Amino acid sequence: MAVKKAAPAKTTRKTQASKFSKETYIKWYKDMLMIRRFEEKISQLYIQQKFGGFLHVYIGQEAIAAGTVSACKKGDKHITAYRDHGHPIALGTDPKNLMAELYGKATGCSKGKGGSMHFFDKERGFYGGHGIVGAQIPMGAGIAFAEQYNETGNVCFCSFGDGAARQGALHETFNMAMVWKLPVIFIIENNNYAMGTSVERTTNVTDMSKMGDSYEMPSFVVDGMKPEAVHEAIEEAAERARKGNGPTLLDIRTYRYKGHSMSDPQKYRSKDEVSEWQDKDPIDHVLSVIKEKKYMTQKQIDTVEAETKQTVLDAVKFAEDSPFPDKEELYNDVYQQKDYPYIKEYLA
Amino acid sequence: MKTVQYREALREAMSEEMRTDSSVFLLGEEVAEYNGAYKVSQGMLDEFGAKRVIDTPIAELGFTGIAVGAAMNGLRPIVEFMTWNFAILAADQIINSAAKMLQMSGGQIGCPIVFRGGNGTAGQLGATHSQSFEAFYAHVPGLKVVTPSTPYDAKGLLKAAIRDNDPVLVLESEKMYGDKGEIPEGEYIIPIGVADIKRKGTDVTVVSFGKIIKEAHKAAEALEKEGISVEIIDLRSVRPIDYGTVVNSVKKTNRCVVVEESWPIASIASEIAYHVQNYAFDYLDAPVKRVMQSDTPFPFSPPLMAEALPNVARIIAAIKATMYK
């Protein structure tokens, strides 16, 4: 259960593990392991210069995507920032199409037109993958606006980092989302660093859950290292939104084990700090419950590990074997109008 | 035919489309209870209710982003900016989000949205309230930009914009909302990207758009008395631009002047001049001329304003220069 304004995440009230089924734990384990192994692999591939662009990995934060997806319903929408590999994996997008997107291949989830920061999977309710920090905050509220307008009962989960929370768009959006009681759940994936700048260095109000107070938005601190805590907070917030009671702010305390991007030397934090958080690893936690409750045998656990690794290797092969987009694709998907008169004379 | 104000033509376009498509809605500052800062949306709250005619707080970036999100998720918002000057605050959502969503999602998520409001100078409002954004937004692939100069064009182009599946910007003018003109009784649409020859002529082609085209009309009337026949092309759309109509006209007149209410660098005028020299070089009897706003922030004091704006005398001088008169 989420706790209003419990200060540090580690003191957040313990959730009742017994509430969750064996199937849920196994799904969390598989989803988080897939995200972790996928991103470990793409980090290697990036260093080997198999593909370009920016690469921001989610390692350490997996419990947020896993707990959000297990608590959401079909028809709900999800939108996040450029650290966007975790959500589509948890939502069930084939890792092959995500890997191909990193390579800029035609078989990518965005046809090779988005790259790492701009994964999309509309069919599964994943509305991106957005590279401009904080731009997804009003967009997420707008996606929720459409659900409210059409009276669907669906909600939008809008994720952003503690850095994006400093954008003015957040305040404008919080204000309107409360006035209009939009069915949106604002999720701060609070990993304590905006690139290399800590929360403490960017604000006078270090308890980010207080950011909702000016708008009288229900706001909670959540332990982001435990999918149980995330699931419960998300479920409760979504319920509030579905009933027409408007948005919720969740300050989900988490940590990214890796740098902001692949080029980050991480001089702004100590190795001890990183290892303290790694001691609370969400995959280790879920695995310990699975073992304790005997939800899986060691053989089954080993099989999941082996299958996950194989899925990632298959995705790499798929991406490398896939074709690049045809040159004509340059002019596709810019306009819905099929005969838009592009200026092409300089190409002659 | 019937005579209506420019603002009424815009209102008819919105109301007709809202009657036939429940996914269309209007939001912006003062559009509902106040009936529009410039009374464009007068009466719409009464007809369509608060669900579809929505007053926003003064938060251009936020409400534009919310509208973009709504468009991504299947609605067809019309965003009214009190003026385009204020939409600078929302430029991130127009340029980074709306214009690029379809491409970056690999065609999965489009953004059928209309952004509209007053553009350009509007009296003594000072530099920040007097800017023209045609060239700014025409620069951006993924957007479409229209510039109606008459009530007839305003209704036809806005209806086309609302039905368009791509983001369309409609650049209006506070100074034109009271202009009167004839429109048909029934429904009509003006396709985006088609220029209109507003005046037939044989000696020189004047290319313009938006409010400032009225000065070109006055110049053409004055020159007619001197025996100079001016053809006036109203681009109506500055993205895409109907280059063919311009080039064909110049091939006939052999002379071209562009009249634009904006700054000279990277303007629509420079774009037109490039295309004319590239596609009608052998037809030109004189260099392409342009009549622009001064290369300064727009001034406040009346004599400075007069000095800054394109006017009839300057347009006449530019036309005569192309005729070596």
Description of the molecule:
The complex is a heterodimer of chains A (348) and B (325). Chain A has 348 residues and is α/β, with parallel strands linked by helices. In chain A, helix 6 (168-179) links the parallel strand 3 (156-161) and strand 4. Chain A has a single domain (17-347), classed as Rossmann fold (3-Layer(aba) Sandwich), CATH 3.40.50. Chain A has 11 helices and 8 strands. Chain A is globular. Chain A has helices at residues 22-47, 62-71, 86-91, 95-102, 136-149, 168-179, 199-202, 227-242, 271-278, 282-292, 298-321, and strands spanning 77-80, 126-129, 156-161, 184-190, 193-194, 197-198, 219-223, 248-253. In chain A, helix 1 (22-47) packs across helix 2 (62-71) and helix 2 crosses helix 8 (227-242). In chain A, strands 2-1-3-4-8-7 form a 6-stranded parallel β-sheet, with helices on both faces. Chain B is an alpha/beta fold and 325 residues long. Chain B has 2 domains: 2-183, Thiamin diphosphate (ThDP)-binding fold, Pyr/PP domains (Rossmann fold); 196-323, 3-Layer(aba) Sandwich (Rossmann fold). Chain B is built from 12 helices and 14 strands. A 7-stranded mixed β-sheet of chain B has the order 3-2-4-5-7-6-12, sandwiched between helices. In chain B, strands 9-11-10-13-14 form a 5-stranded mixed β-sheet, with helices on both faces. In chain B, strands 1-8 form a two-stranded antiparallel sheet. Chain B is globular and about 60 Å long. The relative contact order of chain B is 0.12. Chains A and B meet through strand 2, helix 5 and helix 6 of A and helix 3, helix 4 and helix 5 of B. Chain A: InterPro entries: DH_E1, PDH_E1_Alpha_Subunit, Pyrv_DH_E1_asu_subgrp-y, THDP-binding. Chain A: Heterodimer of an alpha and a beta chain. Chain A: It is an enzyme of class 1 (oxidoreductase).
